[in-house]
Design a protein that fits this description.
Length: 259
């Protein structure tokens, strides 16, 4: 496939065939990831490939019981990793830097870039995947199960395998609502409503087409997609809790030093 077709054909896949991914193909995908851009070429990331069924069963709860964790043959976890770099520095008696929030951000960006390279290579080979925000939200639980040492934090993760479904493609906000030229041009109220018009219509229809979600929406008395996002899906309380989890884990993993 042409790269542009791969990019525009992306869908989140949650159902998978009972079919293994060959080691040769997996290596090709991982090698594509490793070629991603990296800050200072430090490659401050690690990729954890989890195939073991029992281990993925342990990760199932940490990933908020999303079925693809155990149904897909592979789970990939991309971590910000300065453990390796710091140990190399120590062996050369160099200063032990990279134990702060900026270092975490560098590693997190590196890991994210790698994850998308791997995703494109996988989809180009006919595989499907589904990114899971639970990787960062429950980074402490996942880090414990994956035996992560200090200076390593899971940032991005997704299931990987051969698709057993062909879901409809989700809408995206229009380019003119996302791209700014030269400088940031703030939005008028009218332009905000226009940018989100299609999202509001299609998103509402998608939720209301699911009997369970429709029942929840009606029970909560929600009137629009914005309320679904903030009252039912991404509540202030849940994001505050996840934020604290991440901050606590960053401190535990030695990324919160300011001296």
């Amino acid at each position: 496939m042409d790269l542009i077709d791969v990019i525009h054909g992306h869908r989140s896949i949650r159902e998978y065939e009972d079919k293994e991914v060959s080691n040769e193909l997996l290596d090709q995908i991982l090698d594509a990831g490793i070629r991603a851009s990296s800050s200072g070429n430090m490659q401050a990331y690690s990729i954890i490939v989890t195939k073991d069924k029992e281990l993925r069963k342990e990760l199932y709860a940490a990933h908020m019981e999303q079925s693809m964790v155990v149904d897909a043959p592979i789970l990939l976890t991309f971590c910000a990793d300065f453990n390796r770099m710091r140990r190399w520095l120590s062996l050369h008696e160099a200063p032990q830097n990279f134990d702060n929030i900026m270092s975490f951000m560098i590693g997190a960006i590196d890991a994210t870039l790698v994850s998308q390279n791997c995703a494109l290579a996988a989809e180009n080979a006919g595989l499907g995947l589904c990114y899971m925000g639970s990787t960062l939200a429950n980074c402490d639980q996942i880090g414990k199960i994956l035996n992560l040492p200090a200076n390593v934090v899971p940032v991005v993760g997704y299931s990987l395998g051969y698709p057993a479904e062909n879901p409809s493609q989700r809408d995206r906000l229009p380019r003119n609502g996302l791209v700014h030229y030269e400088q940031y041009n703030d939005y008028s109220n009218e332009s905000i409503l226009e940018i989100y018009k299609e999202r509001e219509e299609k998103g509402w229809q998608r939720y209301m087409a699911n009997p369970e979600l429709k029942e929840m929406i009606e029970k909560l008395g929600l009137q629009n997609l914005a309320e679904i996002y903030t009252v039912a899906k991404y509540t202030k309380e849940s994001h505050q809790e996840f934020s604290q989890t991440v901050l606590n884990y960053l401190r535990k993993q030695n990324f919160m030093n300011n001296d």
